[in-house]
Amino acid sequence: MLFEGLCIGAIGIPIGVMVGIGSIGLAIPIVAGNFGNILKSTVPLTLSASVPAIIAAAAVSLVTILISAYIPARKAANTPVMESIRQTNEVKIESNAVKTSKFAQRIYGLEGTLALKNFKRNKKRYRSIVLSLVLSVVLFVSGSAFGTTLKQLSEQYVMDFDNDILFTIQNMDDSEMFPLYNKLKTADGVYESSYQAVFAYSCAVKASDFSDRYREYAGYAALDETVYLPMDIQFIEDSEYLHFIKELGLSTEEYTGQDAKMLAVAKAQNANDTKDGKSGLIDMFASRSMTFSIAPEIDNKPLMGQGQSINITFVDTYPVDPPPKQSSEQNSCVFMVVASYSLKEKFETPDTHADIGLSFLSKNPSQSVAEMEAMIQGAGITSAYTLYNVYEIVEQYRSMRRYLSRYFSPTKSLKIKTPLAFEIGDLRF
Asked: What is the distance, to the nearest Å, from the Cα of residue 261 to the centroid of all Cα atoms in its chain?
């Protein structure tokens, strides 16, 4: 038996070492790209075989084989031949020791009675089985809890982007922005592009104008209290705005022009409020159409002396994602007015803070970003700007989710386009 163990080890150990190293060598190129996206490291993921480690693994395997062969061999060598033939050592327990009561037979049934007799026959095996069941239950509960947590995270973090590349800059004049935009959209691989500007404004709101759910959430007790609420005005391309109005089934005559009504999204997110199946999204205002007095906002202070009045109709979504805010503060409320770019001059003042966003769809985002960097440097842009490779950021996020939830079924969730804050590496949206 020892000789057979040596033969098995001499054949199996080399085969196991070669198959193990070969399998890892085949798997590394497959996962290296995804790990590179997650870790954002330039260090390559390669296979390195350690000779001392292989020798140690082979020695441990050989010792295990020899011990496994030696124990039954010694037992067999110490057993007389006639005793082995008669198999007198196979049964070492009296029949009364495994006897079960009729009450137990009625409760457990035939299968349970046989299992109970088997436990009584060999208590060591009984303890091993109980321990195995306990570990199995613990692993099952732990795995189920982990899977439930991943599904909840998948439902909370739903990312939806309208572009592959995003260029953002603050307070750039149209005379400088449009020539740069026309140049960037000629980058190799770019097949669609758009531009927008977002102004920081503030509006005066009576607490009585808020919805009951939002007033309870925000803690406004006095109905006559005046609140200066921060808001953003997003100016998008005229064609995109007209398409958005038609999608909503609204009148173009009523929502276009210098004195036309404007569209807005006003939502608050409360994780503890899941009424109506809206995943914690609360309408901030009680009415679907209201008139507001608004003014530019500087350093979180409204300049009411430069204010004007607008009529707003509230909707549930907006057509184009706004540029990411540079502020690190997280806001659970979204109050954003959507307007045509032709109205930008009407709301622009010397004190207005503007975020400019140029977005692009590309067949090869990495190549396009590299080319755009050269164009921006050649244009002599001196203001601080950011050029995001959104496609790469999303791939990093998807890679992390894929590695975490590959063993759990994906969940379907209702996509509601509202701004979310998340961080990947040094980038924050």
From this structure: 37
- Residue 236's DSSP bridge partners are 196, 340
Q: How far apart are CA 63 and CA 408, in angstroms?
A: 39
Q: How much is the pLDDT for 416?
A: 34
Q: Select from 191, 189, 193 the least CA-distant residue to 180.
A: 193
Of the candidates 193, 198, 190, the residue with the CA atom closest to the CA atom of residue 172 = 198
β-sheet bridge partners, residue 227: 205
Helix axes 102-121, 123-156, angle to 10 degrees: 100
CA distances from 344 to 24, 121, 126, 239, 336 (A): 59, 87, 79, 15, 15
Q: DSSP string of 292-358?
A: EEEEEEETTEE-GGG-EEEEEEE-S--SSPPPPPS-----SEEEEEEEEGGGHHHH--TT--EEEEE
Amino acid (1-letter code) at residue 369: V
**156 by DSSP, 3-state: which?**
helix
Higher-confidence residue of 367 and 148: namely: 367
- Mean pLDDT value of segment 271-279: 53
| Cα-to-chain-centroid distance, residue 413 | 13
pTM, rounded to two decimals? 0.59
